[in-house]
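Hi support team,

I'm opening this ticket because the web form for multi-chain structure prediction keeps timing out on my end. I have pasted the exact lines I submitted so you can reproduce it. The total is 226 residues across two entries, so I didn't expect it to be a heavy job. Is there a limit I'm missing, or should I split the entries? Thanks in advance, R.K.
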Amino acid sequence: QKEVEQNSGPLSVPEGAIASLNCTYSDRGSQSFFWYRQYSGKSPELIMSIYSNGDKEDGRFTAQLNKASQYVSLLIRDSQPSDSATYLCAPFSGGYNKLIFGAGTRLAVHP
Amino acid sequence: DAGVIQSPRHEVTEMGQEVTLRCKPISGHDYLFWYRQTMMRGLELLIYFNNNVPIDDSGMPEDRFSAKMPNASFSTLKIQPSEPRDSAVYFCASSFRQGATGELFFGEGSRLTVL
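Hello R.K., no limit was hit. The queue was backed up. Here is the completed structure from your submission:
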């Protein structure tokens, strides 16, 4: 079992729709969770963090966390073509004392 | 702030040659990370330093890889001898209190091709 699992995609959504990106993790000791966005040929950049169960909203982005289910998700409302990128889920593993990156989900938003 | 600076941006070399990748972290950051990214394996942590001291090198593939951080503003990742399977994008990242915020600032990466 991989430590962090994400659907590789591509996830294709029309412009204006909601994109839903999912992630499961294996380390129950993880307390902090992060979403990074990586455009093709570029480096990853942090877009969201979440520490507590429930939802956290930031503009068009909402992160959702369920520690009991070891599940974290990212919703992007009103998706834009500029959101087309790979989204990396990264729990901070208490056991390993480091971020563990998932393989990423590629999102394609078409006009 | 100039951000994390990596060099070279692209490197093409032949199998068996030595490769040295360089990184200048953001001033004031006390953590420095070296990652490798491939299509097959995604983003893998190779090694990280805290205050110039290597903390976890469990991701370093084998003895052909070595990393140093002689001071707070410079780090190198060396591969000797290089092999075709080392072809990847190597990212350097830095952070302040990595565990607290999880925010890593990545350089633009060094794309390595070993023929």
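A quick check on our side: The mean pLDDT of chain A is 93. Let us know if the file doesn't open in your viewer.
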